[in-house]
Amino acid sequence: MKKQQKSGTLFSRPRLRVSIVGAGWPTFEILPGLSPNNDTANPKNVKPTITIYRDKEHPSHILLPIIPE
Predict the structure, then answer these.
(1) Half-sphere exposure (Cβ direction) of 23: Cα atoms closer than 13 Å
(2) Is 38 exposed, middle or buried (0-12, 13-18, 19+ CB in 10 A)?
(3) pLDDT tens per residue, range 15-33
(4) What is the three-state SS of 23-55?
């Protein structure tokens, strides 16, 4: 699967939305290791579990690179 590169300029105090793609078919192709034929009806597909924690015990962060102009 080819990754799409995204970039943009952020202004003072931006708000970002983060999407976790795990159920975005058919917009996004299923990973070949989970569904070799990209067929959601195939009973041999591996069904992943995605767990998202949003509490004090499981802090998370995203590192965004800063590229000087």
Answers:
(1) 5
(2) middle
(3) 877 777 665 666 677 677 7
(4) CCCCCCCCCCCCCCCCCCCCCCCCCCCCCCCCC
Among 19, 32, 39, which residue's Cα sits nearest to residue 6? 19
Place of tokens 């080819």: 2
CA distances from 64 to 6, 46, 59 (A): 12, 31, 17
- The answer to whether 50 and 22 are in contact (CB under 8 A) is yes
Identify which of 58, 55, 48, 64 has the alpha carbon closest to the alpha carbon of residue 7: 64
Write the pLDDT tens digit of every residue in 37-59: 777 788 887 777 778 888 999 98
How far, in Å, CA of 57 to CA of 29, rounded?
33
The Cα–Cα gap between 47 and 21 comes to 14
